[in-house]
């Protein structure tokens, strides 16, 4: 009898412990269900915007944070470290080394009128980050659509101020920079909370329908440039040579002129000197001039015959010289 009583007491005690354990588990579960909604985590690349009944109350950094649950405070996480990308004029289906692109035409985005009334097909990429989560969430209804509209309007404005050659060949880097600057000003004006990182022109070509004609024009321009370069090369070779020859001829003429002038001045001075001496001593000067002249003449004569002025005939004398 006593053993039965003890056994019944033991069974009641074990049953009571099981019930206590179940109650404890239920209490702990209820506490977790009640407490866990108060906590939330923010990833390192995110920031969280907290609203209380729809009104922004605070912005929290990455980590473990507390809120009032059950619809009192709403948490919206914004990826502020992620770089987002918008493509214009084309779409990438699968990025990577072997990227695949959509075959659909996006001419409504890419075709633009240039400043010289030509048409260019412009494909570009805009990369951006969220710098102000609050402005990003509350100031603009659809930020992505706003970025796309402003990017397209900005690109059309910048392209419309330039010629087709500047857009396609000459000023692509400058165009991308100006679009970046103007687009950022517009986004700041509308307080979108967006920071533009880069604007890259991917592919800028004439429309497909006019590409053959454009290629012919380019070929003609290259041929023209080649001919001009050859002409300039020939010009640079011939003109300096001709200028050098002309300078040489002028210098020779100047030297000849100076020589003739000096010679003429010397002759004139000599004549004047002789004339002065002749005027002062006419007979002596006349005799001296005669002798000097005869000296110059006789140097060129092989034989000299001195004849008496009273000699009647010269033939006998001239015959004497033949025998020798």
Layout of secondary structure:
Layout (H helix, E strand, L loop, with lengths): L1 H34 L3 E4 L3 E7 L2 E6 L2 E4 L6 E7 L4 E5 L3 E3 L5 E2 L5 H4 E3 L5 E12 L2 H6 L4 H18 L3 H7 L1 H18 L4 E12 L5 H70 L1 H17 L16 H6 L4
Antiparallel strand pairs: 1-4, 2-3, 2-5, 6-10, 7-8, 9-10, 10-11
Helix pairs in contact: 4-6, 7-8
Which percent range describes the beta-strand content? 15-25%
Characterize the biggest β-sheet: 4 strands, antiparallel
Rounded radius of gyration (Å): 56 Å
Query: Gap between N and C termini, in Å?
Result: 200 Å
Q: Uncertain runs with pLDDT below 50, 5 residues or more? A: none
**Helix residue percentage:** 55-70%
Please tally the β strands and state the result: 11
Q: In one word, what is the shape?
A: rod-shaped
> Helix segment count?
9
Name the structural class: alpha+beta
H/E order of the elements?
HEEEEEEEEHEEHHHHEHHH
Mean pLDDT score: 85
What does this structure look like?
The protein has 324 residues and is of the alpha+beta class. The protein is 56% helix and 20% strand. It contains nine helices and eleven strands. The strands form four sheets. Strands 6, 9, 10 and 11 form a four-stranded antiparallel β-sheet that branches. A three-stranded antiparallel β-sheet has the order 3-2-5, with no helix packed on it. A hairpin with a 2-residue loop joins strand 2 and strand 3 (55-60). Helix 4 crosses helix 6 and helix 7 (211-280) packs across helix 8. It is rod-shaped, with a radius of gyration of 56 Å. The relative contact order is 0.06.
